[in-house]
Amino acid sequence: MRVLVKPAGTRPWTPGATLDDESKNLNQPPAVGGADANAAPEARKSDESTGPNHNAPAQTPDGASPHHGADEDLLQVIKTRESRGLLDRSGLFLCLLAAGIGVLGEAAAWTLFKMIGLFTNLAFYDRFAFTFNAPTTVHVGWWVLLIPVVGGLVVGLMARFGSEMIRGHGIPEAMQSALYQDSIIPARVAILKPLSAAISIGTGCPFGAEGPIIATGASLGSIVGQIIPMNKDRRRILLAAGAAAGMSATFGAPLASVLLALELLLFEFQPVAIAAVAIASAVAAALRIAVMGTKPIFAMPELPRPTLEPLMFYALIGIVCGVMAVLLTHSVYAVEKTFKKLSHVHWMWWPAIGAVAVGICGLIFNPSMGVGYINIQRILSGKVGFAFVGMLLLTRIISWTIALGSGTSGSTMAPLFNIGSALGAVVALTLLHFIPEADVNARAAALVGMASLFAGATWAPLTSIVFAFETTLRPNGLAPIVAGCTTSFLVSCALMRQNILTEKFARRGGGGLFRPKGDFLDRTLVADACTRKPVCLNARETVASARQKILSDPIFSKHNGFPLVDPAGHVVGLLTTRDFLDAGVTPNTLLEQLLRRPPNVIYGDCSLRIADQMMQRHNVGRLLVTDRNETGRLIGVITREDLLAAYRRDS
After folding, report:
1. Which of these three, 297, 317, 333, is where a domain ends?
2. Which residue, 113, 220, 369, 398, could crosslink 362 as a Cys pair with Cβ 3.0–4.6 Å?
3. Cα–Cα distances in Å, from 355 out to 240, 350, 403, 585?
4. Both 345 and 490 in a single domain?
């Protein structure tokens, strides 16, 4: 919102004056106005009588908060919770539950792979079998155009009549549950998510099993946390443990799975949380080894020992991957936005529409369909040439962005690994074509591309580095991976305000910068804690009309202060009853003419941390909450009491 900060000694502020645009930087809340010694003495005097209601003004004559003594510094009132030791009874019990969740995670992963194999065989091989095969056009020919559409139609029906939570990537939904839904996931999601994903992947959509199995593992952890009484913090640990178990069971990468849970779901390093997640991941990995053996999922030949010169090239690949991560993120959500414009078509049909692109790409280049793990293995092993990786890069980008943007049940990890490995190989092969003597290894470049694109798209560089090593077991690739992931991460952070995982629900919350933290002040939005629909007055209303409402309407008479809004609902200012009940004010005066200071406002998608800091900085007890997308539209009022109430609910 554009508001005027009135300097001391100037004439009274009035609406329509030249405004100071301090809110162009979307990382900051809208500019706020503070009280000064010369501004509106009669308004400051009226503040003395205000009570703790949401419509009252926020300052006393000395400029302090009305509740300054009780909560002078909210950050001191809200103490950081101490990390619980691993040897207490509840911590040990949580670790035992995590071990059980690890078993469930492996069972869920095994079941999902079998279901994917079943649907793939039914759709593309016309046989009833559970073997894990890649989709092919050999047996179906032109029917490949229709098979993904049928799968998308089934997924849409499942989402419409089963649970809408099965739509999307998998990981963002788990993040949203951990952050904003008290880690509660309905039990039906644990069944419908893997089933819908198996149908989607089995009919050719270019997704991997890891996103759905991470979401399924998170659902299982959440269900256990709901069955056994515990607080939401412990339930969140079990949710993260389930997600880690699912990823570990899929890729055989237990350490990367722990890091993913910590980087994307927990955002904190409590000993009991680390232990529980690690136990679940280790149990799932051990069971995977028992079932599938110790061979890494992306086995590749040994890499040459890197020197300084190629490291610079691998860092350059990271830069390219960082830019690609930005383009892919924008592309996915641009497609999603396009589908949302199809208001005359129910979203249930969108996955079937998006699957048309999958069928076309599959007809043109068959390896663009399915999970694509075999594609990654072939690229990392150096068994394919420029034509293959070039076509894979192009068709995967098109089919994945359209399919995922349509809202079907999908994932991000395997598609990003496919695209990243192809991109790294394309860059390396192009360089070697023009500079044959360059000290660059195309297989190492593909490995760097695979990890770097994921790091840039998800902002999880540690997970990406460790994952690339655990899934290949090639130590000579570590230095190139670190170089590429670091540069990709930096480029992506410089060019994007959100990553591909957080953009989804950041848009739902109004588009503000999403910075997940462990503290509730950082993870709770102002819009979720404020008082909605406060009693307001029209800025174009006369003093006589306002007086009549105060004297005759009990809804107005019980309040001491009122936000002023224009006919469109946009904030204009804040007045107290004394401002317009003063005998010196003529009845025909417009309320907006009584304003002497700009309103203290904050966007609804800002965190409570920002709200608390603004209240302390400007010595106020409340802020008017506005909508970022509809600049100036009033959402509600946030007070110190609201912050404390949010803390009590979080405790």
Report:
1. 297
2. 369
3. 31, 9, 6, 67
4. yes
